[in-house]
Amino acid sequence: MHDFYEVYLPREDTYLMExxxxxxxxxxxxxxxxxxxxxYLSIYCAKRGAQVTSxxxxxxxxxxxxxQAEKEKLPIKFLQSNMFESLDVKERFDIIFFNPPYLVSDxxxxxxxxxxxxxxxxxxxxxxxxxxxxxxDGFALLLHTDKNDxxxxxxxxxxxxxxxxxxxxxxxxxxxxxxxxxxx
Length: 184
Prior knowledge:
- It is built from five helices and seven strands.
- By secondary structure, it is α/β, with parallel strands linked by helices.
- It has one domain (about 5-184): 3-Layer(aba) Sandwich (Rossmann fold), CATH 3.40.50.150.
- Strand 6 and strand 7 form a beta hairpin.
- Helix 1 (about 10-20) packs parallel to helix 2.
């Protein structure tokens, strides 16, 4: 099987995150993308002058994304990692963004889609630690669906003294997608 069958390629949720990134000043910002898939968004940010670190748990995604960045001659740092595990604990970013696996499932064969039994498993892991890697004035962008209990996300963030606003949204025939900007 070819890598592109096992790598999350750009879809509606990818383009919605791109819309959220468009108005931001990215030049010279230190950016972390969790779950880079094809590398589409990391490449977008690097082209706009950001210093990008790009992470994915899937080694095939990292290989694919790295090849795409090399074609563009972009200096993106790629790491195969389960979210933050391979990062230095002292590393901080201005912007962290994540389009997590969020489909409710008992066992999907494609990690890029499998959000666990309630669709929140990966989201909750991200919310548990993302703030440890943010600069004091930094923020996170998180893609969220109406199927994953936005109220629960708000409660988790409030306990950590974070708040969020919905900065992009899109209605699809089976769900509503949001990009949350999370900040203190």
